[in-house]
Amino acid sequence: MQPSLLRIVISEGEMMTEWVKVCSKSELPDDSGVGALVHGHQIALFYQAELDRVFAIDNHDPVMDANVICHGIIGDLKGQWVVASPLLKQHYNLETGQCLEKSELRLRVWPVRVCQDQIEVQWAGA
To answer: What is the DSSP string of the chain?
Structure first.
């Protein structure tokens, strides 16, 4: 998926951020994920249909050192929305990025919004 860029720059203190248009909501499969490249950084996007909610999290699996998180399965585990890494099945909380099995592991999560059917991720640098 080739991201298109929406250049809206917002100043938050000393950090400059922008909302980057990634894809349309209709391009996201229900209850599944896709990978997106935002400023050279791989992000996994997941659409949870029941909640009508989009999550954005790093696509890089730190255990296997591979960009595969977007291929993981999402679900509710112990009251938390998670993605299971497709390789060794570690579960990462989609809201916090925290790994449920290894507390020392955490994926970066990205603010995401839907504007006129367009999915936008807030970029503040990697």
So the answer is: -------EEEEETTEEEEEEEEEEGGGSPBTEEEEEEETTEEEEEEEETTTTEEEEEE-EETTTTEE-GGGSEEEEETTEEEEE-TTT--EEETTT-BBSS-TT-B--B--EEEETTEEEEEE---
